[in-house]
Write a structure and sequence with these properties.
The chain is mostly helical and 289 residues long. Among the domains are: 1-81, Rossmann fold (3-Layer(aba) Sandwich); 227-277, no CATH class. The protein is 55% helix and 8% strand. It has helices spanning 2-6, 21-37, 49-56, 60-79, 90-102, 107-110, 119-122, 149-158, 175-190, 194-223, 235-240, 243-256, 265-277, and strands at residues 12-16, 42-46, 83-85, 116-117, 139-141, 224-226, 232-233. Strands 3-5-4 form a 3-stranded mixed β-sheet. Strands 1-2 form a two-stranded parallel ribbon. The longest helix has 30 residues, at 194-223. It is globular, with a radius of gyration of 21 Å.
């Protein structure tokens, strides 16, 4: 087993979203039984994701993601884990890049999912300010992000493993499903290695996004002149910034003031225009910011 090669302790975590009744409960039992057969500790919990979606004004996909990361973060802190691993693979990454592209994302969105995410960032995925880590800083890792789905399925076939499949992944009400079923097959016909190609695009965009973050860190020290319950930019220094850094600064300020991580480009441009005009210009952004 890989766990022996890496000399690491594993803990299995599974969440029942309470969206598919007995079928989902059977999957949770399957996970618990499999973990027991492998002598692995296991945490299985259930969350009413539909109720969470209504409470947070989210769609079901976003609410499910919130619930999963909240559970993963809580368990990681409880057991003292150094890392949390998810099974996202290369095809998932390709879908994510295309999903963001269709929605008009910039460089930060086109970087897709990253193979390693620091605790300080991924803890925000859980949307729970009470999650405090003291000395622990468990990373979020995605070790299969470069591995195509076909290779994973071949591995299961070779070893006589029968994976459980979530039928909700075929629900065409979701844009991601339509991208998986309609868009990716067309792109694969044009380039059989499309998942790998999109993965490279994501990696390139990640490098650019990381560079912008580093430049913004340096500029932020003199750009922000007041922090309290609001963020005030120095007008002269703001005007000296290139547009890419102005947009990045605006997004950071929005997030620090309680906004989400999905501020659209049109809102960013409007807000940057307001900052550039100075006193007397006021706009409302999503989330009451």
């Amino acid at each position: 087993h890989l766990r022996d090669d890496l000399a690491c302790d594993l803990h299995v975590v599974h969440l029942d979203h309470r969206l598919r009744g007995a079928e989902a409960a059977a999957e949770a039992a399957f996970v618990a039984e499999t973990a027991a057969c492998l002598n692995l500790p296991c945490t299985v919990e259930a969350v009413d994701v539909r109720a969470l979606a209504l409470e947070r004004n989210l769609n079901l996909h976003a609410a499910g993601r919130l619930a999963r990361y909240r559970l993963l973060a809580r368990v990681a802190l409880t057991i003292g884990a150094q890392a949390v691993a998810t099974a996202h693979h290369a095809d998932d990454q390709a879908e994510t890049v295309l999903l963001h592209l269709v929605r008009g994302a910039g460089v930060a969105g086109l970087r897709g999912m990253r193979p390693v995410v620091a605790w300080e960032e991924w803890r925000t995925f859980a949307g729970d300010p009470s999650l405090q880590a003291d000395h622990l800083r468990p990373r979020l890792i995605r070790p299969l992000l470069d591995v195509p789905r076909a290779r994973i399925e071949a591995y299961c076939t070779e070893r006589g493993l029968t994976p459980r499949r979530d039928p909700s992944n075929a629900d065409r009400r979701y844009l991601r499903t339509r991208i998986r079923q309609d868009v990716l097959p067309v792109l694969t016909a044009l380039n059989p290695q499309i998942a790998t190609a999109l993965g490279r695009t994501a990696a390139d965009c990640a490098e650019v996004a990381d560079f912008l973050e580093q430049e913004l860190d340096r500029a932020w020290l003199t750009l922000v002149v007041a922090r309290a319950n609001r963020i005030v930019f120095d007008g002269r220094r703001w005007r000296d910034l290139p547009p890419a850094l102005q947009h990045a600064a605006l997004r950071r300020a929005y997030a620090l003031l309680g906004g989400s991580d999905t501020l659209g480009r049109d809102d960013v441009v409007r807000a940057c225009d307001a900052v550039g005009r100075g006193v007397g210009k006021r706009i409302e952004l999503p989330g009451g910011v």
